[in-house]
Design a protein that fits this description.
The complex is a heterodimer of chains A (422) and B (243). Chain A has 422 residues and is an alpha+beta fold. Chain A is built from 13 helices and 18 strands. In chain A, 53% of the residues lie in helices and 17% in strands. Helices cover 36% and strands 19% of the residues of chain B. Chain B has eight helices and nine strands. In chain B, the strands form two sheets. A five-stranded parallel sheet of chain B has the order 6-7-8-3-9, sandwiched between helices. A four-stranded antiparallel sheet of chain B has the order 2-1-4-5. In chain B, β1 and β2 form a beta hairpin. In chain B, α3 crosses α4 and α3 packs parallel to α6. Chain B is globular. Classes of the chains: A alpha+beta (422), B alpha/beta (243). The interface between A and B is medium-sized, with 29 and 31 residues.
């Protein structure tokens, strides 16, 4: 025990006397740690952000179509719905005894490339994203009346909208979208950033969606027929159809029964999708970038550790005499091995600790900025099991790195080191 | 741990028929016989290149003889493995080098206590005599005229003479039976050489340690109980031991 204390103290004092050189090693380990853990966190959060774009929705219900397509347009608003789901059919689904709540989604309109989603108050009440976070308003309130719109965070930021601004929706996102310029919308609220597709969308009520299309037929205005916004309230604005439904169940363990029941119910054919499963399938396709990211960070770490090995090995020459002195005073070759390994171990540990600290600082400082400006949700959190494994791996690699030079030093003869003059 | 037997009459150091050469080179040193009694102080003279340092390295177990046998405190050095020899040296032998070989990043006092940190034998002997290793170091440093202000100073911030005395205190700590000193005065001026040798001999006598002191400076020889010329040792050792 006393011997270990002696060796630890000698290692510490010796390292301190070479702190200039060793600081560089620590810096390189700090950088490796930041990159490896940072990239790992980015990677998992990209994945998590994607596969939990929508959370707590047990089933995604739409007209009979492929699951991936349904997810892409209902959640990411990519591509178009081939057909819609009748409002009466939607009401039937909502009325099923298993169903707790339903968020209807109606799409097809855009504003300067951002999708417009018509929905109801259940959206703000029940929509959840990453690990069950609910939506909140950064400013203003939820859309309520006709021609009121609530903006996703990125829409407001990119287009520079503020409360009280007016904007015009257009029909379809194609090359020459037709404008609904006769019925402008008032910005009444802006949602807080989420790092999910919600940031890139505009939200209006289902009656608003009906209202801007009362004088339209088959995707175009009826020629010579126009209804002014003031008059539109006289019409029946109950939606005729919706694009998809997000369904929450009372008992989510019964999700497969509910899925079967919905898909087999009589009437218009429906698809019911478990969003998490479908999202994972899509991510399999686009997730190759994620793997290369991990490879890059691994290479970075290997480079850092090679630097550690090279510096320790190079420093061995100048420590030869010091080690010989210790041997001459009774330190065994094993003590020397311990001394050198101890040094690389605690240098690695110091680099890891500082790296984690720096990363935590950077995330605390930059996290909100990244979320707002890049939609990347990088949060300060305790390391995950996988991250602990990575940290353990770096530490082990640091230990092994020190072992090489240590074994070399084991074979240094005492006389050799001492005969060098000061 | 090999417990050295110390039967009455057995010399502390016994060298017989030892020769040494680096692999593939001609013989550097050949020694028929050498005896050092417990508590004896021996001066080894000889021109540089005569193998004086090699002799110390052999007795100190820093290198192994190509032939022959070396016994120190009843233990055959050549029978010990490398780590066991390191340990044995740490326990029984105090070394003073020409270039002192202090650890520059340790304080004077920490340099002195280092042998006790690495050897239980010397730890216990220092404690038995002074109550604690720290007290033993302070007592030695005081006896060797190193002012207390200097004790906490890093070894590389001391003057040559001060480093010398720290190195001597380090060798003496824990009262090893044998002190090996390799040209320790070569960097001192004339009057300080004599003073250092007298301090060293006085302290090693107090500690009951034998001293094997190698130097080319013959003027120091008179202070030692016996004097050996290395040339004499090669060949017929019996006539070469004037008392």
């Amino acid at each position: 025990m006393r011997r270990w204390k002696t060796l630890a103290r000698l290692a510490a004092q010796s390292s301190w006397s070479r702190r200039g050189t060793l600081a560089l090693i620590v810096v390189s380990i700090v950088l490796s740690t930041i990159l490896l853990v940072g990239l790992e966190r980015l990677r998992t959060q990209i994945r998590e952000g994607f596969s939990q774009s929508v959370y707590g929705v047990d089933l995604l219900v739409g007209p009979r179509t492929s699951h991936a397509q349904l997810v892409l347009y209902a959640i990411f608003h990519l591509g178009g719905a081939t057909n819609n789901l009748g409002w009466a059919r939607a009401q039937e689904v909502a009325a099923l005894p298993e169903v707790a709540w339903v968020i209807p989604l109606s799409m097809g309109d855009f504003h300067r490339g951002f999708p417009v989603v018509a929905t109801d108050e259940n959206f703000l009440a029940h929509y959840r994203y990453r690990r069950g976070r609910s939506l909140s308003l950064a400013q203003g309130r939820e859309f309520a009346d006709l021609f009121e719109v609530t903006l996703g965070a990125e829409v407001a930021r990119k287009l520079g909208y503020q409360l009280g601004d007016r904007l015009v929706l257009s029909h379809g996102g194609g090359e020459a979208p037709r404008s609904h310029d006769d019925k402008p919308f008032l910005v009444v609220g802006i949602l807080a950033p989420t790092g999910s597709p919600v940031d890139r969308s505009l939200y209006i009520s289902l009656p608003s969606m009906e209202a801007i299309h009362v004088d339209w037929r088959g995707g175009a205005p009826i020629p010579g027929f126009s209804i002014r916004p003031e008059e539109v309230r006289k019409f029946n604005l109950t939606p005729k159809s919706v694009t998809a439904l997000l369904v929450g169940l009372k008992n989510r363990r019964l999700v497969f029964q509910a899925q079967t029941k919905i898909q087999n119910s009589p009437g218009e054919a429906l698809s019911a999708v478990l969003p998490g499963v479908a999202l994972d399938q899509i991510f399999q396709l686009i997730g190759t970038g994620e793997k290369s990211l991990f490879l890059v960070s691994l290479l970075v770490t290997v480079t850092g550790l090679l630097g550690l090995a090279a510096t320790i090995l190079a420093g061995l020459g100048e420590r030869r005499r010091e080690l010989a002195i210790l041997r001459s005073l009774g330190a065994s070759p094993w003590d020397i091995v311990c001394l050198i390994t101890l040094e690389s171990l605690w240098l690695t540990a110091l680099g890891l600790a500082l790296g984690l600290l720096a990363l935590a600082g950077a995330l605390a400082w930059l996290g909100p900025y990244l979320l707002t400006n890049f939609g990347a949700s990088l949060e300060l959190s305790a390391p995950t099991t996988r991250e602990w494994l990575i940290l353990g791996g770096i530490l082990l690699a640091g230990l092994l790195t020190g072992l090489g030079p240590a074994i070399r030093a084991y074979f240094y003869s005492v006389a050799d080191g001492l005969s060098r003059s000061s | 741990m090999v417990e050295p037997s110390d039967p009455a009459g057995e010399p502390l150091v016994l060298v017989s028929q030892v020769s040494f050469s680096w692999p593939g080179q001609k013989t550097l040193l050949h020694l028929e016989s050498l005896r050092i009694e417990p508590g004896e102080s021996v001066f080894v003279a000889g021109p540089s290149g005569s193998g004086k340092s090699t002799l110390l390295s052999l007795i100190g177990g820093l290198i192994r003889p190509s032939q022959g046998e070396i016994r120190v405190a009843g233990v055959r050095l050549s029978a010990l493995s490398g780590p066991a020899r390191d340990r044995f040296r740490g326990d029984r032998i105090g070394l003073i080098f020409q270039s002192f070989n202090l650890l520059p990043y340790l304080s004077a006092k920490d340099n002195v206590t280092l042998p006790a940190q690495l050897s239980r034998y010397r730890w216990e002997r220092a404690r038995a005599a002074f109550g604690s290793v720290g007290a033993a170091a302070e007592s030695l440093l005081t006896s060797l005229d190193l002012e207390p202000e200097l004790w906490a100073r890093a070894a590389n911030k001391l003057s040559v003479g001060q480093q010398q005395r720290v190195a001597a205190a380090r060798a003496l700590l824990g009262r090893p039976p044998l002190i090996l000193a390799d040209e320790p005065t070569s960097s001192l001026d004339e009057p300080r050489r004599l003073a250092f040798v007298e301090l060293l001999l006085r302290e090693s006598q107090k500690a009951g340690s034998s001293v094997l002191f190698v130097s080319h400076d013959e003027s120091l020889a008179s202070r030692f109980q016996s004097r050996l010329a290395l040339d004499d040792l090669r060949g017929s050792p019996d006539q070469a031991r004037p008392r």
